[in-house]
Amino acid sequence: MRYLFLCVMILPLFAVQNNLFTSFGVGTGASYKTDFWQQTTKDNSSCAGGTCIGNKTSGSYAGKKGISFEASIGDEVFFDKYYITGLRVYASAEYATVSLGGLISSSEQDGKNKEFTTITGFKPDGSPIIEKVPMKPVPAPQNELFNNGIWMTYGVNLDFFVNLPLDILIRKLFWSKMPFFKIGVYAGGGVEYAMLRSNSWENNAAKKNDKFFASGSGFFANIGGSIYLGSHNRINIGMKIPYYTLNAQNWYDFGDSDPWKQQLVRQNFDISRTREMHISYTYLF
Description:
The protein is mainly beta. The protein has helices at 2-10, 166-173; strands spanning 17-27, 32-43, 51-64, 68-78, 85-109, 115-122, 128-134, 149-164, 181-203, 208-229, 233-242, 245-254, 263-273, 276-284.
């Protein structure tokens, strides 16, 4: 990674032309997949290891596509006088609305412990009553998750590109006044931080209207094509392919309100996003 960073820093020194740019675009929509599980636990010395583990229910959800919006700012470097090869280094931000969709499959796993021993009350003389209390089973995964999510990403990109110098060929063969016009392809990638929020969703297992937050970071790939319409305008059509997931984990009081009997339910969400087509306009300064 450090050698790649050094290359990025050194290559602009050999540039024929260096252009700052800003870009705005839209995505055609990505699908979302959520793998979810929930399980009860109870800290109690009557269970092996001091923790009682109840049943576990799991589910997978298929989310719906939603249009995304993106903006970026960066630097474009050409390495030859014909503007054929070069690279782009830029920072980007993306916004999308998200629906995590409905349940497509579910399963249940038996708990390691069925019950635990604890204080259930007190005798008239003040001595404790000690009995066995069953682990409260978690319900099946709910049929729907939220449809009001907001997805945000912040990334750093590095793309290499190759252009076909159509304008130079046309000037030499047909029309000497042909303006700047090139068609090219690019490939690259980067790293980004992503987060998913929902200010309100019905959490059935926790029996409450809850807020949701998940985050994650990782690598993604870019691939696509570009059209230069003059020296200041570029149209990009490409695909972004993420290779990471977002995660959220939450714990809630579960079952009896008596602290001796009360258990915890842990919920875990792993959320991934599919590849997405993007189209954007870039202005080069």
